[in-house]
Amino acid sequence: MEIRKLNSLRGMAALIVFVTHFSDITQWLGGAFGGGAGAYGVMLFFMLSGFLMSYLYLDKDFGTNSVKRYLVARFARVVPLYVLVVLASFALTKFGSDLLYHIPDHQALLGHLLFLYGDSVLWSIPPEVQFYFVFVLLWALAANRRGYIYILIVGCLLLLFFTNFPRIYGDIYGVPYNQFTVLRSLPYFFIGVVFGLHYKTLAIPAYLKKHRFAFVLCLIPLMYPELSPITSDAKNRMWLSYEVLLVMSCVFFCVVFLVPDNNVLLANKVGDFFGKISYSLYLLHMPVIMQVNRFELAVEVKLVLSLILSAACAYLSFICLERPLARAIRKRANAH
């Protein structure tokens, strides 16, 4: 069963990253929407990912065939377009162009293809893929000992907190790796998993389901470093702040559990469109913004042009590459 309002949330996550990078690159409004605040969009992506995996799979029998179908589905959804972008970036970099992303040598290429490291926005794909395998462990626990999932999650959160999120990064024979980005992302996947566990069973009283809870999304810009009334270092630590985790979890909970499914702000065709192209938009918007910024145009014109071109590229990528490749992989896997 599709939860339509999550399409808009996914699209909103991609647009948060887009606006942040546009603000950083062009210094639109003095960079007020930048300062690394695109992290909040990626946090939404990770919570959505954990939620949907939990919602879709934890009630299913755990077995070899089920796990195979799950891994194929997740692989088909994320990996093909990512690999194409990585290979294209490597080829362009070798020819002296950073039109896409900077992947200068075979070691950097291998780091990307092994999901150990990512340049620019590509950094978020290794944590996503690595969590797919962590989720298999959670799924195995859910088969007979679901309660242990909570113990494991709480234990991991405490361990990360008391070890100050270990900075595990470097290179092996020149191949870069960065497990720090994975560790700092885990809490957001875990929160999504916990919410997914309870989505079908948690009985929310009818009087609590209100359309106005959609405005909880306004809390996200209140955490932007240049806009936030918060005076602690939480607004700058972002990924390493459990205060930020609390706020983002509250936002996610309200949207998923308290906002009615037919909310016009979240269940609409515009949200469906941006949700559908969100992955391609996330991977491709940076090169578009960089190219548009070369032109001598008013910054507002650059914003509109960058958004239109990014959405157009993302849509073409979705219909010509992302969706056909995913279907072909799933079809081939099901044929065996």
Question: What can you see in these coordinates?
Answer:
- Helix 3 (64-94) packs antiparallel against helix 4.
- The protein has a two-stranded antiparallel sheet with strand order 1-2.
- It has helices at 5-26, 39-57, 64-94, 106-113, 125-144, 147-162, 179-198, 234-237, 242-258, 269-276, 278-292, 299-335; strands spanning 169-172, 175-178.
- A hairpin with a 2-residue loop joins strand 1 (169-172) and strand 2 (175-178).
- With 336 residues, the protein is mostly helical.
- The protein has one domain (5-335).
SSE-based structural type:
mainly alpha
What percentage of the residues does DSSP assign to strands (E)? Answer: under 5%
Gap between N and C termini, in Å?
27 Å
- List the strand order in the largest sheet: 1-2
Element string (H = helix, E = strand): HHHHHHEEHHHHHH
Tally of DSSP β-strands: 2
Radius of gyration from the alpha-carbon trace, in angstroms: 20 Å
Number of helices: 12
Number of domains: 1
Bin the helical content: 55-70%
| Low-confidence residue ranges | none
- Mean model confidence by pLDDT: 95
Spatial shape: globular
Q: How many strands, what sense, and barrel or not for the largest sheet? A: 2 strands, antiparallel
GO molecular function, one term: acyltransferase activity, transferring groups other than amino-acyl groups
Pfam family, one: Acyl_transf_3
Protein name: Acyltransferase
Keywords: Acyltransferase, Membrane, Transferase, Transmembrane, Transmembrane helix
